[in-house]
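Incident log entry.

Two folding requests arrived from the same account within the same minute. Monitoring flagged them as a possible duplicate submission, but the sequences differ. Recording both here for audit purposes.

Request one:
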Amino acid sequence: MRKPALGFIFVTLALDIVGIGLIIPILPKLIEELSGGKTAAASHIVGWLMTLYALMQFLFAPVLGSLSDRFGRRSVILVSLFGSGLDYLLLAFAPTLPWFFLGRILAGITGANITAANAYIADVSPPEKRAANYGLVGAAFGLGFVAGPALGGWLGEHFSLRTPFFVTAGITLLNWLYGLFVLPESLPREQRRAFDWKRANPIGSFVALRRHPELLGLTETYFLLSVAHQVFPSTWVLYTGYRYGWTPKEVGLSLAAVGVMAAIVQGGLARRIIPALGERRSIIVGLANATIFFVAYGLATQGWMIYALITVGSFGAIAMPALQSLVSKSVPLNEQGAVQGGLSSLGSLAGILGPLIATGVFGHFIRESANPRIPGAAFFTASLLLFGALLLALRAFNKSPIKPAASA
């Protein structure tokens, strides 16, 4: 069962990310049109939309994580996919900005794919293979972003800015049908535990993490890493359009390049690099790489430089699967959903703060009265956060070892 299960979850995530990737190149442009054509104003609206989505994830991811411990991972994945499909249809017809805010609320409530998927992987992976298999999640994201943004940019440029939402809704609902008939359950009934509202809330999910004090430094690292990476989804389209004059098609191609490298690094090279370096060294190397290359993104004066930076900077992606592997190894099987829900809550909290920080810094330093204008300021800020994550990881490794948990 393990190999087919991983294949199913890989395809499910890849198709899901194709859908998400389709709308990335066009959403800021559409918001810009609805808000009067001001890039600085649109950047703040995009930031608030992403923050609202993350807030809903923060509130509801622990609920869905605990539900997956009670009823299994499969049902949570299917519910979230179906909800996402309906959300994309709502956005396709949304006539005004308030409808986009409603859509983000619904998407945030149902968007628990990653929480359930990470718990699913922990269910079916022996400890020694978890880092490699978590790399498959990154590869699924990478492959999804190869096709999604390129197709979304092309559809938005040659048809209309609404077209990618209809295509995304179709792909997501087909993905739901695929999972409905093909995706097997990963958590045996005898390993499930009762649902408890004390665990199924953001505070309770943090308590679940605090039950493992040896993970404190790693969860802090995870949080700062997640905040820093919000600079990409929240400002990439705005930044490249402002600084390089890229069209949606060109933005889509750049995101496809990110996807190719993510698939190569996390889906292939990480399976060799992480076992060779070990999880701790992989985290340190990955964070150091990202710290340096985020500065480089902010300094790049020509669009072609971005592609060179993507090629080498993508190796920083080995930090996340190595970090997830270390965390999962200390948690028994029937707590994976709750702990992954806790990590999702941290990620969602990062998603609340990150876009506000990134778009706020970007908008502040490109406004007409800004002196000096620094288009790359958001990337410089993200680099400082990554450096902080690196220091926290080093401190955590010096304090205490990570001990594998016994199966419950």
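Request two (distinct sequence, not a duplicate):
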Amino acid sequence: MRRRRLLYLLGILTGAVYTQGIDGRTVASASAYEDEIREHLALLVRTRQEVSDWLAGRAFPFSKYDAELGYIHRDRRFRQGMNDSICTYTYDKSGARRTIMYAESTCRINTYGNSFTSCEQVNDGETWQEALAAFLGEPIRNYGIGGYSVYQAYLRMKREETVCPARYIIFNIFDDDHYRNLISWQAITNGKNWQHFQPPLPYIVANPATGQFKEMKNPCPTPESLYNLCDLDWVYKRFKDDFVLKLRQALGAGQNPDRDIVQMVQALALEQGMQTRVNYSGDDLIKTADSLYTQSAIFASTRVVDQIEQFATTNKKRVLYVLSYGPTNVAKRLQGEKRFDHSFVNFLDASKLPYVDLLEAHAVDHAEFKTNVKDYLKRYYVGHYNPQGNGFCAFAILNKLVAMLDPKPAPYSGFYDCSAGWCRPDEI
């Protein structure tokens, strides 16, 4: 049991879920496979006290329960900024992060996405939205939520645009958001921690081979239903056949995977239209599982973007997509590796949708420096973007956003309101 728990904890750190065979090998066998699934889920079961404390705001300070979206942010202060500083996060009545620049002015730009939109690890006022607002001379709302998928961000956009609508939307897609589309319960991939409850979420069931795209609601759609997470039998019945859970088991099967794990992945591959023969090599199994995850995740994102565009057209809005990346994927790009999301970028190009590609922006920027990749990344990242990284992001977005806005923001309009103390350029 101790080794199994250690393997599980290792899985939380590495993003894999490990299983333990009777002979000591990291494997899973026929009836043992179901036992391992149940044992893994047992580690994720919550106590009634934990559920009550989260709902009452006494624990898990990163978030609060939301029936539709799973969770949203709450005011908090975490020691996670530059130089081990404490970051302050505050939110207005609509749930948007505090607006500082030109807060008294009419807002025509809303932003949606995950933690690279909410701007984790920097204070209010240090976000790319605030930097961009200073460039434009008008406010920008920040509706980003850490950990959200593309699908969750879309759902939040639909909801908030009925309350605080904006003519222009910046929709930020982080590299991991594609995969999160498919996650039905955050604890399956993230485990447990003190900051965040890791709740069940609305998610997508997707199959690129058949075109299946099924929107699934939050498995715990009421506060009372969260207590189901305290019942292992309910948890097992609800999540044992989960697509992401199966892939996690495969990714943790080790170099000598059991026949039943191999057959399970082979069946998933056939269902998803992958013409491949999975052998008993751990590397081959991991490669297949990773490909399954990626192609389904990217497919789900393309379908969500289709829905975003439909929503925008119906409601006379314009959307600028921003593709953001963590330091790992930026490092891979700077070292010449092929990007994992090339098919998504091809989709945006084929659809003629406006977007800002921060991966390529970093490649262009890095070429201006005589420094190694590690030192370059330290300029901009502290896990997420530091304040300088958010400034980089704002500058990368600026030109395409200004080109989209009509009328142009005051600094880019060519004339100013003299009654407000501004004058035409030829009067200066």
